Amino acid sequence: MKNLKKIIVAASLCAAIGATAIAGTLAYFTDTKEAVNTFTVGDLGIVLDEPNWVEQNALDVVPGRTVAKDPGVTIEAGSVASYVRVVVTMPKVVYDYSNFYHENAEALVLFQNQSEYVTVNEAASDFESDTVKIVLDYGMMSATTEATDLGDIFTDVTFSEKITNADAALIGSDEWDIGITAYATQAEGFEIAGADAAFKAAFPTVFGE
Predict the structure, then answer these.
(1) What whole-number distance in Å separates Cα of residue 55 and Cα of residue 68?
(2) How far apart, in Å, are the Cα atoms of 125 and each of 100, 107, 136?
């Protein structure tokens, strides 16, 4: 009987050891995967240039003189789809003697060849203050792989030979400036709301209400 107990105990120990050995050699079926998503940040760049502007030519202007002023905007290569806007500022008295104001400005200070690609944004412009602000909008520009020249806004300023002394007196003999500022913002997300909403969101201090 004692021998039988020893055999049972020995068998139980063997079973325990065997179970331990099996547990030590079991391998769970496992797998690990990692998804790495790389985002590249889009780019948007514009250049505003006046290649033919010579400041000296704008000093002591007399009727009949043409001064080259050819501001133009270029969208840099690799830019995302965008809206482009240019703001032109000038004294109101100069605006009153420009073809922004007069359909026939031949006898006045003439801003020639306003780009056909630009639309005057009447709602965003300010024609009433002493310094007039004219907002020029381009349509939505597609993403670019190469630099895209949007053309000159205008090519020169001509003081017509028909300007009289009275005209010159109204325009004034003091210095006055024509300012050009170009802005660009992404178009994605504003396809329905449009350019005004995009510029208000991107430049609230300039175009916000």
Answers:
(1) 9
(2) 12, 25, 8
